[in-house]
Design a protein that fits this description.
Distance between the termini: 20 Å
Number of domains: 2
Number of helices: 11
Strand content: 5-15%
Number of strands: 7
CATH architecture of the largest domain: 3-Layer(aba) Sandwich
Strand order of the largest sheet: 5-6-7
Order of helices and strands: EHHHHHEHEHEHHEHEEH
CATH class of the largest domain: Alpha Beta
Length: 228
């Protein structure tokens, strides 16, 4: 869902920089770039662990507070007020920039009009993801919506793909997975035999060291229609 059919107009790097700049200028305790560099380092460390990744995405706000707290301590400060401030600013900047693009909505509608069954698989907490589904009216486009926090498992766990196949009553060999995350969406689906389409909206191409090879690559969601 996030990054595939819902787009963020504010990139993470931009949001983190602004979230660091405001308290830095307000307090004068540290420089924006110093805290930002520390956060970048701790983010990479935090999300590199599979267990932290799964636990963290089920409570993103607390995970980000943890990252900021450790990053702030790393540059010599212990201040829960600043931790809350940075995490809150980041949250509002990112969540406030979510959009449901018109071409995405039109593509989903056209796919549905062709009689093709659609399922939505998304990682994260049930309340947070359901809020987005309701806000943008996504449920009407999908025969099933599976949220990690409700199902008890998330991408790339084979169980969530198998659950979706069962609920939609479709065969693996006649199913496509469309997503922007190479590990969760593409590798996870390929491991259960699903044809996988990677959304490379920024047109960066596959990372040079990527061992994951999508079955197809699209640069806009509407390109799916030409593949049908």
């Amino acid at each position: 869902m996030d990054g595939t059919i819902l787009n963020y107009e504010v990139k993470p790097e931009e949001a983190w920089k602004e979230a660091c700049r405001i308290p830095a200028e307000r307090t004068g305790l540290f420089e924006t770039e110093r805290l930002l560099s520390s956060i970048d380092e701790i983010r990479e460390w935090y999300w590199s662990d599979p267990e932290r990744l799964r636990a963290g995405r089920l409570n993103l706000f607390e995970a980000r507070k943890t990252i900021v707290r450790i990053a702030l301590e790393k540059i010599g400060f212990t201040n829960e007020g600043i931790v809350d401030e940075v995490a809150t600013i980041y949250w509002h900047l990112r969540e406030g920039s979510i959009r449901f693009p018109q071409d995405t909505e039109e593509t989903l509608r056209e796919i549905g009009n062709k009689g093709i069954k659609l399922g939505l698989l998304t990682n994260g907490a049930a309340d947070m993801q359901m809020t987005k589904i309701r806000k943008f009216g996504l449920a009407k486009y999908f025969g099933v919506c599976l949220i990690e926090g409700e199902v008890g498992c998330g991408k790339p766990d084979p169980k969530i793909y198998e659950t979706a196949l069962g609920k939609l009553q479709v065969k693996t060999e006649k199913t496509w997975m469309v997503g922007d995350d190479l590990i969760a969406d593409i590798d996870g689906a390929q491991r259960v035999g699903i044809f996988s389409i990677w959304c490379d909206y920024d047109k960066n191409g596959l990372p040079g060291n990527s061992k994951i090879k999508p079955d197809s690559i699209i640069n806009s969601i509407s390109e799916i229609l030409s593949l049908l």
